[in-house]
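Bumping my old thread because nobody answered last time. Still need a sequence for this structure:
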């Protein structure tokens, strides 16, 4: 799976002018496998932008052009120094849901917004506007070339790689593989596998025989079931809204789970 960046969309209906500053508009920006919904800061605007204005801009962004995103794409709301209450956050989440997007995280410099977001069940990062802008301007790091290992990852071994990892062998209990991309174990996976370690929840973990001590994809964690199945099949672990799911490889469909090609 490649971590291809989505294009930034700037297609809201705004008056044509050479002086329009896009930083004063609501923006949608692709970053890897997620979208950033960026609100203009209050300190940047010469005149205060009302909630009504923000809401209209948001609706124009979501409905005014081609929907370039995949269904169920996660969204990080960059609220900057905007004061948002629970009702406004819910309205944003509902608008995103209408176009098959899912709000999962909120970045804000306002304590009140952070409290409202956390109370609503979203992941929250409260930091300064300067640090938020530094994060937005950071260059995404591309995945490294896949790492192929023809070996058994034994107890006490830890493999870390900035791309995908393919193990032609077993991953034993006590062994760990951490990858920024996908993990494929062409054997028995009985240790710890952490795919999408840099935060990409669209990554996959695949194995001929799935008996993990622990599975992690991005920030999602799953442990092995207590009941050992009587028969094993090649399986794929992936993230859905409720967490990590496992499906038989024969039943797994990228189109069904809306993963990028």
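Sorry it took so long. Here it is:
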């Amino acid at each position: 799976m490649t971590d291809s960046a989505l294009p930034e969309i700037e297609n809201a209906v705004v008056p044509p002018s050479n002086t329009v500053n896009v930083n004063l508009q609501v923006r949608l920006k692709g970053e890897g496998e997620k979208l950033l919904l960026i609100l203009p800061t209050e300190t940047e605007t010469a005149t205060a932008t009302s909630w009504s204005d923000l809401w209209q801009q948001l609706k124009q962004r979501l409905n005014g052009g081609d929907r370039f995103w995949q269904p169920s794409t996660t969204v990080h709301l960059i609220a900057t120094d905007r004061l948002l209450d629970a009702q406004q956050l819910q309205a944003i989440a509902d608008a995103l849901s209408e176009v098959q997007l899912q709000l999962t995280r909120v970045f804000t410099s306002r304590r009140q917004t952070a409290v409202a977001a956390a109370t609503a069940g979203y992941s929250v990062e409260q930091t300064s506007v300067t640090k938020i802008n530094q994060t937005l301007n950071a260059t995404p790091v591309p995945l490294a070339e896949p790492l192929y290992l023809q070996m058994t990852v034994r107890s006490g071994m830890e493999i870390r790689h900035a791309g995908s990892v393919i193990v032609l062998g077993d991953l034993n209990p006590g062994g760990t593989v951490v990858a920024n991309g996908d993990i494929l174990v062409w054997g028995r996976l009985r240790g710890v596998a952490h795919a999408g370690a840099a935060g990409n929840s669209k990554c996959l973990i695949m194995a001929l025989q799935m008996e993990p001590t622990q599975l992690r994809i991005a920030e999602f964690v799953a442990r092995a079931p207590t009941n050992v199945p009587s028969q094993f099949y090649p399986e794929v672990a992936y993230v859905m809204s409720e967490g990590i799911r496992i499906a038989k490889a024969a039943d797994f469909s990228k189109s069904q789970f809306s993963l990028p090609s």
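The first strand starts at residue 27 and ends at 31. Let me know if any region looks off to you.
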